[in-house]
Amino acid sequence: MTSAAVLLAGLCSCAAVDGERRPPDGVKTQTSEHLVELELVLPQRYQHWRSDLLQDWHHLQIDLEQRLARWPRQTQAVAKSPLRLTITASPADAHFLAERLKLPGNPLVPRTHPGERLALITLPRDDRLLANRAHPPRTWRETVRHEMVHLLACDRPSLGGAPAWFHEGLAEAMVALKPTPFPDVQQSAFGSSWVPNLRELQAVDGGGSMALHTVLAGEASEIRYSAWACLVLQLLQEQKSTRPWQLPFAHPTLAEFLASLPTAYGDVLPSPLPRGRELDFEIGGKELFMASLPSKAVVLQAGSWQARQPLSFQMRVGRTGAAMAGMVLRSQADPNQVLRIRMNTFGAVVASLESLQRPNTRAYQSRPQAGATSGWRDFELQVQNDEYGKAFLQLQSADYKRNFAASFTAPFQIEFYVVDGACEIRSQEPFLPLSHLR
Ligand SMILES: [Zn+2]
Questions:
Q1: Does domain 273-436 fall into CATH 3.30.930.10?
Q2: What's the gap in Å between 168 CA and the centre of ligand 1?
Q3: 105 C-alpha vs ligand 1 centroid, how far in Å?
Q4: In angstroms, what is the span from residue 352 Cα to ligand 1's centroid?
Q5: What is the pLDDT of residues 331-358, one digit of tens each?
Q6: Distance (Å, rounded) from C-alpha 351 to C-alpha 366?
Q7: Most CB contacts within 10 A, which of 123, 132, 207, 411?
Q8: Ligand 1: distance of its center to the CA of 146 in Å?
Q9: What is the pLDDT of residues 34-64, one digit of tens each?
Q10: Greatest Cα pair distance in the chain
Q11: In angstroms, what is the span from residue 271 Cα to ligand 1's centroid?
Q12: Distances from the Cα of 130 to the Cα of 68, 107, 279, 306, angstroms
């Protein structure tokens, strides 16, 4: 982390800076004089997200005022410079800004630079579908809250001695709308899905007696951060020390840590279950939005479909990247292949049964859509009977119709995905998770 002075020139010419000090509606006014201003730089196309982000900023401050009371906050007069959050519209803009400011690290990874009192977060792509969202996508907004906590921690100097895992756990704990050591998928997109991996490790010989922090060092970042969040919230609740990270409580074995979780917590994988970033979805929702970084994938495991009723939805794909979006169906009866529906940036589709060993690269077969912007395309999947009464799966999408092998039978596990692009999926009926359609 460099301590060089930062000048937010150049890229900021098309962005606005917020000077508003008033708390949002619903925030108690008696705390308003304690609220710290955020210098929020948002690209022009995304200015309508400003009130959501500032509301999060204010709510986080009020929450942290109580949770972190033992580490006094320095006044803004001492701090001298404001806390700043800069959002870039695309990875290219993030690289450009990071180079200009000489910021260390990969600028595509959200990061707070305490010396500069600056957090830099990029949007995955400057796509019209993303810009048209009324609110920031759920997973991205969670990332913003995470970095906001790092920014606010800059004003509590006595927290400076805390180890990195404590800072990351604290920031990650606050991405949940209602912070609890044991969040579910209603509270944060990743929910309790980090727990089964750790339970599996505990079951391995000697796994339970390993130090939690040693185990987490080898785990994926989502698992590591979620476990730290859980540990930090428990520490803050149960310990009064100003250096709780030094207590034995902060250094449990894996078995001790798992024993502190509620029985059966994380036993069932949440559904829908997201993989990658960014996604916008709600449990019981009628729509799904996904946008990936260049050449990356985003997946939502949406649940199971019993095929007793047709499955109807609409999809459209943004016009950035070499987007490939669609759906994957898996059948327990035929585990060696999947049915993949692919749709490109021009709205053309192709669907085929693909061997898991040899993925298909078949050309798009339906006609591309006309027009300069993405149009919605209808899809319907249903089970039909042939002339001998044998059931088979059929896909229909406008002029495009395909039938699939009779061996590929329900129940199906369904995933929606996008690679190198953005897409939206919607349905008349709530379809997340899909098992509601039984
Ligand atoms: Zn962090």
A1: no
A2: 5
A3: 13
A4: 41
A5: 988 888 999 999 999 899 999 999 877 7
A6: 10
A7: 123
A8: 6
A9: 789 999 999 999 999 999 999 999 999 999 9
A10: 82
A11: 26
A12: 35, 20, 10, 32
